[in-house]
Amino acid sequence: MRACRREAVPFTPIWLMRQAGRYMQEYRDVRARVGFLELCKTPALAAEVTVTAAERLGVDAAIIFADILLPLEPMGLQLEFTKGDGPVIHNPVRSAADVDRLIEIEGVGALQFVFEAIRHTRRALRHDLPLIGFAGAPFTLASYIVEGAGSKNYVQTKSLMYNDSGAWHAMMSLISRALVKYLNAQVDAGAQALQLFDSWVGCLSPDDYREYVLPHTRSVIAGIASDTPVIHFGTGTGELLKLISEAGGNVIGIDWRVRLDDGWERVGRDKAVMGNLDPVALFANREQLRGQAKTILEQAGGRPGHIFNLGHGILPETPVENVIALVEMVHEMSSK
Amino acid sequence: MRACRREAVPFTPIWLMRQAGRYMQEYRDVRARVGFLELCKTPALAAEVTVTAAERLGVDAAIIFADILLPLEPMGLQLEFTKGDGPVIHNPVRSAADVDRLIEIEGVGALQFVFEAIRHTRRALRHDLPLIGFAGAPFTLASYIVEGAGSKNYVQTKSLMYNDSGAWHAMMSLISRALVKYLNAQVDAGAQALQLFDSWVGCLSPDDYREYVLPHTRSVIAGIASDTPVIHFGTGTGELLKLISEAGGNVIGIDWRVRLDDGWERVGRDKAVMGNLDPVALFANREQLRGQAKTILEQAGGRPGHIFNLGHGILPETPVENVIALVEMVHEMSSK
């Protein structure tokens, strides 16, 4: 929490995106019993995997176990997680008429299970560990809503954006209003910080980001109760960091494709940053891993406002002992 | 050819990566009769699709129809193109022992069909249209050799790179020596310019690129007969452009994630650049398409040394009439 506010800290705090995930035996044991969506919707189990991961790894924050696509269901989208292939939306949005059929979320009661999981986690979690809530950012959610699945080239998404900008902006506004309600309700339930995942925004040119995305993301962040730190994250965003920072957030995520010092320069020194180890570095031997972590800490230069993390989520085949070793290394190397 | 040398030209030349491809009816007709690898290995047919695409579109260059993975077969790798899933290598390289089993290419006789296709095309092609030869760059080839297929996270590739840098460099050197022979033989057969496709290099951090890739790519480019212009291309390379330019090439490819003017600054004004329209812009209405093309021409600022292209290959579902319209627009808007 102090690093989010760029206050001095005794060592660089670290947590890892997707730290509760398939690479961890305890998580696989739970998933052997319940499906992915069922796990998200069972607060006691979501809390269990959240707390177990944070405590096992010795990280400095927990992030609630959930999925960025959960708010899509109350908007009228038929979401399914298929084995192996990831999320599928059976009624994707491809036209202005489809946009008109999306449901404006009045309350967030349908997502009560997320808030209950947050309350549950907050009770079970070590008192001094902050709990991060999160949501997908408008563009990344829109990309799933339009493509109906993950995508490589975002042809449908950009086609709608270019060919019916009215429908595009209407959809983005509707998503953004839902997100404000959803995120503030997470804070009310006990989330102490929030992360906005704009994971796929790096497929856009800077001009397209400015025109089709920035105003909407800005409205989401502006709508969040102002004393809650917001982490604004994306991948492949080297060219967008300045605009992403303009859109808002106290902490800006940087991936490994950009040197942390260069990225921080673009973000602005008045903001904190999070990153930026390549998730594949966790497959390297200890000497390599240590070297790469050290480089990142050196680029951060001991300035307040650096939260150590990967540049994207932990990969499923990652050896858990390397993750634990990384957490120890970062704490040790950054201790003053 | 003049744009490659940064000489004045009457209008901005344009060609499009993968301009002979599935989006075009004439290509699909040929592919209904022969498989992908068979097409590559039948010089008369490879020449036919090359020439047809260039003439139908009215572009200013042709690129020989071939695949970046063709040189892998004589190196002892079992390559197959499966329907829908793309290339598969049945005996991928995962260890130093696997690297030792790779075959050092002495001559390039096994790739005779490529040179024959170039000779055939050169005879059939309009006299004033230059013909571009090409190959995959060492890193992109290595990523297929190690992963055994396309990849999302390059876990095996980077694991070998990080955990056995000796084996990595040995493999990259062997690939690079083969590429020098292969590319020079393309020039001997009649290719007037060469493009090196480092399509997937954008997954690397700048430090990793400098250490594990740059020396090898540099040795390939340095080994090419010096009067042949070399186009050095990659995607997601915003942070790497300066290093890619250092590695060599007369023309540096820039993708749509970077503004062309920013990219050219990083590349250096003493080099030409190629790019950088988002391939998905070809799905937009004419007004949008024209606007995006105009922005790129404005960013190029009429300076000599800009070759108009997409930031990556034409997508299979692209409407061919939009491609033709783009070529006309670029010629018209850039005419002096």
Entry keywords:
homodimer; 336 residues; alpha/beta; 7-stranded parallel β-sheet; two-stranded antiparallel ribbon; 9 strands; globular
Summarize the structure.
The first copy, chain A, is an alpha/beta fold. Chain A contains 14 helices and 9 strands. Chain A has a 7-stranded parallel sheet with strand order 1-4-5-6-7-8-9.
How does this model look, in words?
The structure is a homodimer of 336-residue chains. By secondary structure, the first copy, chain A, is of the alpha/beta class. Chain A is built from 14 helices and nine strands. In chain A, the strands form two sheets. The first copy, chain A, has a seven-stranded parallel β-sheet. In chain A, strands 2-3 form a two-stranded antiparallel sheet. In chain A, helix 3 packs across helix 5 (112-124) and helix 5 packs parallel to helix 8 (165-189). The interface between A and B is medium-sized, with 33 and 33 residues.
